[in-house]
Amino acid sequence: MIVHFHKRRTRAPCAIDDGYDWFAIQSSLNIDGYAVLKGALEERDCDTVKKLYDQEQYFRSRVTMARHGFGSGEYKYFRYPLPDTVSAARASFYPRLAVIANLWNRLCNKNFSYPAQLDIFLAECDAAGQNRPTPLILKYGEGDFNCLHQDLYGEIHFPLQVAILLSEPGIDFVGGEFVLTQKSNADYSATAFSLHKGDAIIFSVSSRPTPGRRGFRQCLMRHGVSQIFRGDRYALGIIFHDAR
Questions:
Q1: Tens place of pLDDT for every residue, the chain, 244 residues?
Q2: Distance between CA 146 and CA 144 in Å, rounded?
Q3: What is d(CA 54, CA 56) in angstroms, rounded to the nearest whole number?
Q4: In the chain, where does DSSP find H-type helix?
Q5: Quick one: 69 exposed, middle or buried, by C-beta within 10 A (0-12, 13-18, 19+)?
Q6: Percentages (nearest 5) of helix, strand, coil residues in the chain
């Protein structure tokens, strides 16, 4: 059963992560390896971000998936400075997720600690030669899909990332479910998510700790997108570490 987390109503404008039960979200990430946040991005903001795709000045590179064996479709990496909506989403999610990332490190007896603020973490990435921004927009058309993969871009990486759907299933496209696989020892599972426009899913970049007989062990995770049968599917990917 997939649990969806809804925002509590607020009267004033708020950051993208305000209004959610983050204690419950942390519990879901610890137990299931993912959390779905309903309505993380307003519909108008989804449309604003999606329209950026055709404006080349916002992007540093374009990747055609079939050329690299990644599947079929394409995506573009933003350049710095990031557009306001993308920058605000990245900065507001990070402090919440850093708490969880540091908990995971402690469970796995890792000494590394992630700073509480995104700009400090990005400075650490820059010092390691990772200074290219990684937030991106992915575009899929009819017949396109994304192979299962992990988003690792250098020695330093943040263990959690966020994907936000910018299109509405059944209206803008058909098919194209987000797919997440998990493997721990001989156990293997796959989950398909039917997200709606503006929904965000938080998940592990590569692995997460799971209880074992002798403490915690690593559960390997990959993600992808199933085939699009009709229409166009756009999604915003928020990765917190930068690339070489």
A1: 455 556 554 433 345 656 899 999 999 999 999 999 999 999 999 999 999 999 999 999 999 999 999 999 999 999 999 999 999 999 999 999 999 999 999 998 888 899 999 999 999 999 999 999 999 999 999 999 999 999 999 999 999 999 999 999 999 999 999 999 999 877 889 999 999 999 999 999 999 998 877 778 889 999 999 999 999 999 999 999 999 9
A2: 7
A3: 6
A4: 22-32, 43-51, 65-68, 84-107, 118-127
A5: exposed
A6: 25, 35, 40
